[in-house]
Amino acid sequence: MDTSLCFIHLFFLIYFLFFVAHRPCMSIGATRNEISNVTVVIQQVCRATRFQDACLDTLSSSDLINDGSNSSDVIQAAFSATSKNIDIGLTMVKFIPNLRGDDNINRTFLRCQQCLTMSKNRTSSAIEALSKNKLRDSRAWLSGTMTYLHDCVSQLSRLSISTSNTTSINSLKSYINNTLIVSTSNVLSMLWGLDTYGADPMTWTQVHTEREGVWERVEKPIHIEPVFDFGDHTPDVTVCKNASIGCFTSVQSAIDVALKNLAGENRFVIKIKEGVYSESVYVPFDKANLMWIGDGIGKTVITSSSNTTAYILGDGFFATDITFENTAGPNASQGTAFETHSDFSYVQNCEFLSNRASLYAHSNRQFFNSCRIEGNDDLIAGNATVIFHKCTILVRPRQSNPINETNVIAAHGRLDPAQTTGFVFNECLINGTNDYMKLYHTNSSLHNNYLGRPWNAYSRTVYINCTMEALISPGGWAPLNGDFALSTLYYGEFGNSGVGANSTKRVPWSRQIPEQHITTYSIEQFLQGDEWILIEY
Questions:
Q1: Bridge partners of residue 420, in order along the sequence
Q2: How many CB atoms lie under 10 A from the CB of residue 84?
């Protein structure tokens, strides 16, 4: 029997064994006699989810629930099932690179495996957070799980599939879409219900967002200025251009010697002295709590023309006084200056220069303070939970056709209404570079610049107390494709100033944020920043 046939048999064996271990889906209206081991609390919890039949099917098979279980017990059981589902997905994907000697397929499935591994990591963290009653952390990390699962499916969907491997690849895509993403969505909905309404699932509803007039519960006092003092930290290693003084000559070599899995207030500090470092840098997941200190914007420069100049996975990434640049040309499919997956990440006084997706905030919680972001065509993209505070965001001219093009500041990609993700711009300046504004003023009707467009159905972006110059088009916001996401996204504005802030001609699917709900987007509420950013009042 050849390798591909063996794989397909093994694939379907795993798939079959998983599903025969579960009962057929049961309707919400079924009686206690029909679903003998489904307690009232399970039915109440499942009514709050988007995929109710799948919820009942999963929980009715759980041996972790009994008639005395409360809502938290039920959520832990759902978490356990989700974690096991991810393990099955990892088992499936590990076999596929050996299916054929196709490098493209092998690379794709390696990336998919990495996404599933990150999903597993974030799910484990979310389970632990729930056990400690840290609901906002649990929701944030499971939101990351959802994003990684979607990434895996996206990778698979871009493959050119030959006849010999169509079945196995499509089966894996189906498993991720119909089992992993569904179960993750359901747990996210449960966590939202618990956080929003409390422990009694009788009070829970399906997830609603700001678009429907439902706002997150505000539970913390609000303060103003976040300030982190990088000067208090002594470098562990130094990067410079002169090797004779005993320093590392590349940023990556300093990353490679950093201690692994640091936690709490322990940090590995890398001082990057003035100079241009032509390299792509990568911070792996196990290199947590790295701190980079440069000599200033335009002085310490990390630059490349690869897909991504700086790729950050490790949590607790802090950086200051550095320029990140990507010089990929106008025909490049990607040219990101900075991609971050880091949770609890604080970046201050840094610069990001590129064209499309200059800054890719992929997932998790980040705070960008007093940064400068320059580019065009989705300057800032991703599905992270981010606050941009007092940042300067500049549109630059297109390299190939600088006139009659559409530029978008933010392309946020929230996939599920229960994800905690979104982009918040607070006290930022939205403008163009000097070169761009010269082109704009020559004939402003040939230029279109928007505050955001939806990468996915529940995209969320808000601008609060920002200055918007004349380049912002009167409609303010752009669709992605027809009416996709226009009834489910949330695009909000409050207290903005400047010619571009005039709201009289805004698209009908954007909103003015009610003043009493502005605190929803504070550092404390949106990022839980009071727990990981040192704040001076």
A1: none
A2: 13
The pLDDT value given to residue 227: 73
Residue whose pair of structure tokens reads 């990440």 in the numeric block: 345
Among the four given CATH numbers 3.40.50.1970, 1.10.3720.10, 1.10.10.10, 1.20.140.40, the one describing domain 3-208: 1.20.140.40
- The single-letter code of the amino acid at 422 is G
Within its chain, how far is the Cα of 361 from the centroid? 6
What are the backbone angles phi and psi of residue 211, rounded to the nearest 5°? -60, -30
The separation between CA 164 and the C-alpha centre of its own chain, rounded to angstroms, equals 34
* Contacting residues for 214 by C-beta, under 8 A, at least 6 apart: 196, 208
Distance CA 24, CA 9 (A): 23
3-state secondary structure of 44: helix
Its pTM surpasses 0.90:
yes
* Token output for 459: 């995209």
Question: 273: how many CB neighbours lie within 10 A of its CB?
Answer: 18
Provide the 10 A C-beta neighbour count for residue 180. 24
- Sheet of 275-278, strand order: 275-278, 300-304, 323-326, 351-353, 372-375, 392-395, 429-432, 467-468
Residue 302: which of 267, 337, 330, 259 has the closest Cα?
Answer: 337
Which tens digit of pLDDT belongs to each residue from 195-249?
Answer: 999 999 999 999 999 999 999 988 777 765 677 888 889 999 999 999 888 999 9
3-state SS of the chain: helix, strand, coil percent to 5?
Answer: 35, 20, 40
Quickly state the pLDDT bin for 27 (edges 50, 70, 90).
very low
DSSP for 298-344, written as a single string: TTEEEEESSSEEEEE-SSS-EEES-EEEE---TT-S--EEEEE--SS
Give residue 1's pLDDT. Answer: 47
The string of DSSP codes covering 102-130 is: -HHHHHHHHHHHHHHHHHHHHHHHHHHHH
CA atoms within 13 A on the CB side of 247: 17
Q: Is the dihedral of CA 283, 289, 290, 294 positive or negative?
A: positive
Q: Rounded to whole angstroms, how far apart are CA atoms 218 and 526?
A: 10
The structure tokens listed for 184 are 């993750």
Give the residue-averaged pLDDT of 64-92: 94
Identify the band that residue 534 occupies on the pLDDT scale cut at 50, 70 and 90: low
Among 229-233, 397-401, 468-472, the minimum mean pLDDT is found in 397-401
pLDDT in tens, 311-330: 999 999 999 999 999 999 76
The boundaries of every CATH 1.20.140.40 domain in the chain are 3-208
Where does CATH 2.160.20.10 sit in the chain? 272-283+297-531
Residue pair 490/511 in contact (Cβ under 8 Å)? The answer is: yes
**CA distance from start to end of the chain:** 70
Domain 272-283+297-531: give its CATH architecture: 3 Solenoid (2.160)
**Could you tell me the pLDDT band of residue 31, with boundaries at 50, 70 and 90?**
very low
The encoded tokens of residue 226 equal 């976040």
Containing 77, the helix (H) or strand (E) segment is helix 71-95
